[in-house]
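Example 3.2
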Amino acid sequence: MLEYFIRRLLGAIPTIFIIILVSFFLIRLAPGGPFDFDRSLAPEIQVNLNAKFHLDEPVYVQFGYYLKDILQGDFGPSFQYKNYTVTELIWQGFPVSVQLGLSAMVLALFIGCAAGMLAAYRQNSKFDYGVMTISMLGISIPNFVMAPLLILFFSITFSIFPAGGWNDGAFQNRILPIITLALPQVAYIARISRGSMIDVLRNPYIRTAFSKGLPTFYIVTRHALKPTLLPVISYLGPALAGIITGSVVVEQIYGIPGLGRYFVQGALNRDYTLVMGVVVFYGVFIIVLNLFVDLLYGWLDPQIRVQGQKT
């Protein structure tokens, strides 16, 4: 397992380098620069700023400077948020995004697994059809459509929850963003757990347990739950990364000061260092999450662990 961990960790290095390389050159293909929107700057001041941040040099030279700073753990200063470094902005916004993402994922796991397993146990029933229908709706409706609908219903029509704002993480302000982020994941997890549970219930050892008259709850929790959760666990890594990194639109709609909001503002303002810092940080975060899920999957399934050691 340790050898597998080290091999995966070393394999992540070229992936991170490609992320840095591609994002660095793509953002510079966009028209405009970080100081083009500030028309009050005198020409000589703008020249000095470009020289200070190496923006007057060829792009490949800028990439060399940036790569050197990244290796030292320095994302550089923000071009638009005065007196703030990119690292400071990341550590201000990331905890908010993580709180929303983890809360939404816990809610999605609980509801999705329960609904999917019950639908599998009552396969081809009205409950099964209802769960799958709702799941398809949850997958089909994107966040930027669901968020305004929830605001219209729960905030404007009935005034139950605030329409936006963070309010220092108050419980009422978290409800709608968490529901918005959790609904698509509930749908995916319900479908995955349903299919997995159906396959597990058809195994001979499960049928033998039922023929012996063992209680259904005991069979499901003792024999069927663990293999059923394996596909859900494999989906958990990219899903958790996606729910946190995908909160960009949700944070913008609800006015939440998360990392996604900084990313949007940085892209609009051509804040190269901020956009790059968020992209690199998210890239490393996704790689770490996928590695963690792989290790967890190997722990739950010894066959995967053995195959990983052989290869």
